[in-house]
Amino acid sequence: MEHNDGAGGSSTDELRQRYRLEQQKRIRPDGMAQWRELGEELDRDPFVEPGFTRDPVVEETTVVVVGGGFAGMLTAIDLGKHGITDFRIVEKAGDFGGTWYWNRYPGCMCDVESFVYLPLLEETGYMPTEHYASATEIFEYSRLLARTFDLYPHALFQTDLTGAEWDEDALRWGVTTSRGDRLSARFLVLAGGILHKAKLPGIPGIDEFAGKAFHTSRWDYRYTGGGPTEPMDRLADKRVGIIGTGATAVQVVPQVARVAKELYVFQRTPSAVGVRNQQPTDVEWFESLQPGWQHDRIVNFTQAVTGAQPAVDLVSDGWTEVMWVDTQRGSGSEHDLEALERIDFEVMEAIRQRVENVVEDPETAERLKPYWGKHCKRVCFHDEYLPSFNRPNVHLVDTEGRGVDEITARGPVVDGVEYPVDLLIYASGFEVTTDLHHRLGFDPKGVGGVALSERWARGAHTLHGVLASGFPNLLLISLVQGGFGTNFSHLLSESAKHVAHIIEACVEEGIVTIEPDEAAEEEWLAVLLGVGAAGARYFQACTPSFYNSEQQAIDARAARNLTYSGSLLDYIGYLERWRAEPDFAGVRTRRAEAMENG
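The structure corresponding to this sequence follows.
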């Protein structure tokens, strides 16, 4: 039966068909293999002076934390709150900040309200300047956190971890780095970050381009001029191409459009772009907030964007408006499923109507309309992206879902047309669902020298995404079998709290080693599969993205590499209940006293 859903006069059957056609255009046989790494030249850190050296560090420590973004910093801060100050933080970048260290492209800011995104605001007393903090402000806030909690003396910057191996005799992790460091740690925390390893599209000829090229996370202001908050004056005579139209490009395009001679935006899949409505912070309101306000606001936001519909929407922005109803988890009657589908259509139709209202050229507007469900990709919010396509120097090159065909020495080629450019900017994002050891850049070896890649060759084995059998005293903060949420910092804060609690309990109770039972890991996998089944029907109709591993066929291995796809608050509930039990459930431990008596 055909139903009219009120979405622009289209029936649900018509929209289903349109969504299906748009999905099929974009499904590729190479799946995740369509992406490639940056390579040494493009991966170089543009924010540090070359030639940095230091003496190797050789020491024993209680904890080595890999990663200096929010995940690693919050873990270290929580360890300090538990009285554990004997730790090292190993970080590839030249400072703290993680993704906010690397992403300094013009216009970069967080799409989640700063009052719920920036952690520990009450502890630092910091007031964000705007509702949506810029990358510059978040990076500086990261440094403020590091100073406030005295993290700098623990950090080894501009350092890659090259190996980590469990020593069964010493019951410690032996860690080596690119700087010749040799660290012996009782616990190893992998907090490499959710958006850590940048990727490029594997376009034929990408290495043949003769002009300037860089990834947005390695922005070269020496070439463009200006800075994150200053106009890029050196682009006035330049033809610029941007490959990608996701969350990064939505922020970059308006900045480049203002200054470049010509800008070509190469689109595979249009983003859904709602109203951001940026505003300065109301100082009087901020100063009136009562103790405990941030925790309450964070929980309220997560409730709102997971369909829990709190009585009062404290944040009340584009996110909570779009996500107020969870339309992906209908498990009732066919009538109820259709009702949720119509709600989803209506939300997305409003976003498509905004494109039509803002973009003056009808053909360009039609090509910028997203035809996919609101949970299929991360919705964007911006007030300047769509108007940029009204500028005479900005040209949308829609690739009809295929992506750029090839790149020559002069520039990208689409449908046989070459687009000569002076600068190519890759707004192609980060690896999210690739193998964990690949994203980390090293392959930990556990009991018996078995590498993580070998142990997880047929899929991940964890308890809550945090502990892994065969790898004693290894603690993970990642999306692999862990939680997921719109507000990443909420997930990272709770994960860091959980990791620090486990380490503190082991130290206080004389637990020498801890790792999960395989039976407990399988029980957790069953939970993941059960929760994931509710949304499987929805995601079958989605366009390819990192959310669904580019719609690559699900094999037994991929079926284990799940994320907890239910509410982040439900995932946090699993962690809290586990911590509240008198003994660690589902884990094997060895205690110092028992070993001495044995």
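Residues 330 and 336 are 7 Å apart (CA to CA).
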